[in-house]
């Protein structure tokens, strides 16, 4: 099966703030492996081979206050993914408060070949719909992505990184975005886990342009969180959030997902097909 993991965190870890890197180190014994993957796309591809993953989306975003990540992450991820653009998909971002010209910076991401834009409200300290509160730059980001057919992923749910503010994690703020940008494909990361799943499911059923990325949800809990997952399978994507705290191994996540009482058709849809409709295989 052609599996896409739509959400992994291979990032320039040397940019992380001390408190953030501490959270990553504490979460796993072998953090040196992760540092090696962040230096070497070849090493990462080997790991992906070993767990049966064909493609992975490398989530990168600008969050100077909480994570220490600046706009340099965009060039970094674009360069990294050049090693194998068929298998390594780049995700970047423009931060409304940390860009002198949001329009120009968005156009630059398009030129870099960035495949997805990330918005991380608890780490970027903003609401996903803050353009209704006067943050016009956010509307420029959504509109430009919509025009270029670039999907936007929005983090929903909690975060345990020092300084993260969880009130921004409520998926309800995506309701405005889905209404105001009807042709924008919006990926809701983590389904509001672990406190806003009812809101998440309602929105996913209400909005045609809203998709669910199941990363960060332990596969064993997935059907407790989303008992009616099958109804939204056509707009659900497999992702892991590896190597974030609590996600030890992509292969283990796939095995646990495969063990769920879902039909083979639904599993294939989520592991493989939905992502292929959003990012078709390169010719
Ligand atoms: Zn993540």
Structural account:
With 283 residues, this protein is an alpha/beta fold. It contains twelve helices and eight strands. Helix 2 packs across helix 3 and helix 5 runs parallel beside helix 7. The longest helix is centred in the last third of the chain and has 15 residues, at 264-278. The structure holds zinc ion. The site of zinc ion (ZN) has 5 residues, from loops.
| Quaternary organisation of the protein chains | single chain
Radius of gyration: 17 Å
Order of helices and strands: EHHHEHEHEHHEHEHEHEHH
Binned strand content: 5-15%
Number of helices: 12
Q: Describe the global form.
A: globular
Furnish the topology, listing elements before pairings.
Layout: E1 4-8, H1 18-27, H2 31-39, H3 41-50, E2 55-59, H4 72-81, E3 88-92, H5 102-112, E4 116-119, H6 121-124, H7 136-148, E5 152-155, H8 174-180, E6 186-189, H9 197-206, E7 210-213, H10 222-225, E8 236-237, H11 250-258, H12 264-278
Parallel strand pairs: 1-2, 2-3, 3-4, 4-5, 5-6, 6-7, 7-8
Helix pairs in contact: 2-3, 5-7
The structure holds zinc ion (ZN).
């Amino acid at each position: 099966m052609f599996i896409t993991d739509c959400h992994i965190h291979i990032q320039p870890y040397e940019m992380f703030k001390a408190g953030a890197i501490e959270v990553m180190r504490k979460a796993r014994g072998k953090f040196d492996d992760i540092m090696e993957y962040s230096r070497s796309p070849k090493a990462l591809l080997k790991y992906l081979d070993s767990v049966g993953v064909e493609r992975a989306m490398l989530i990168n975003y600008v969050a100077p206050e909480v994570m220490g990540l600046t706009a340099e992450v965009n060039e970094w991820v674009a360069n990294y993914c050049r090693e194998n653009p068929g298998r390594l998909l780049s995700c970047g971002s423009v931060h409304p408060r940390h860009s002198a010209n949001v329009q120009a910076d968005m156009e630059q991401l398009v030129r870099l070949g960035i495949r997805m834009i990330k918005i991380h409200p608890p780490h970027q300290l903003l609401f996903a719909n803050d353009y209704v509160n006067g943050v016009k730059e956010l509307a420029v980001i959504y509109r430009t992505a919509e025009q270029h057919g670039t999907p936007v992923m929005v983090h929903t749910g909690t975060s345990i990184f020092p300084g993260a503010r969880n009130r921004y994690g409520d998926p309800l703020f995506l309701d405005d975005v889905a209404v105001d940008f009807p042709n924008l494909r919006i990926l809701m990361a983590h389904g509001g886990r672990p406190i806003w799943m009812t809101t998440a499911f309602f929105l996913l059923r209400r909005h045609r342009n809203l998709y669910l990325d199941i990363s960060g949800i332990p596969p064993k809990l997935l059907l407790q969180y989303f008992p009616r997952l099958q109804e939204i399978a056509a707009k659900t994507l497999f992702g892991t959030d590896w190597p974030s705290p609590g996600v030890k191994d992509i292969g283990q996540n796939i095995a646990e997902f495969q063990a769920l009482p879902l039909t083979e058709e639904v599993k294939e849809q989520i592991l493989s097909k939905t992502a292929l409709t959003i990012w078709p295989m390169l010719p």
